[in-house]
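>> received
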Amino acid sequence: MENKLNETEIAEGLKTNNPKVFEQLFEKFHPQLQYFAERLIDSREEAEDIVLEVFQKCWKIKDNLGSIVNIRAFLYITTRNVCFNYLRSRKSQQERQKEYTTHLLTAEETKNAEHRVIEAETLAAIYQGIENLPTRCKEIFFLTYFEGLKAGEIAKRLKISVSTVTTQRSIALKYLRKILSDENLVMLSVLLLHSGN
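>> returned
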């Protein structure tokens, strides 16, 4: 997307009720929040609903958030809490015949949630690295690893040569390997493996 706002402009823009600013905020955080919620509750559809609910909550109190750091913290914490409420409700429904004296999550569930936060943060770093790629390079990377297109299909769609596709894809991978930490590279490798390419 052209003319992206920086983090300060996004935070300030929320105070003016600018819908385009909120769209950019959604675009910035939605992928990792969706991933975070989905890993917590193991349901793509419910995770999508939860993330949308969280952004609605964010919009309602946007004037009190002040900075992108606060916005980010609010989004993650609220997503976690809504997911925990969902898990409690699901557990209660599944074990309706039992009497519950507490609604606290088990230590194992809490530990798993912490791991999901780390995974989501790692994914966010990867997405940020991808966003910094040159426009055509980024486009080819997404078509390859997120849409699953082959080099020939990409070349036909973009009206470029197959060699250009493979060259740009190689540039993207070299750049990401250079800027990402070892831990993030491991996550990137997993994502590329799951993409089937």
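>> Residues 132-197 form a domain with the Arc Repressor Mutant, subunit A fold (CATH 1.10.10).
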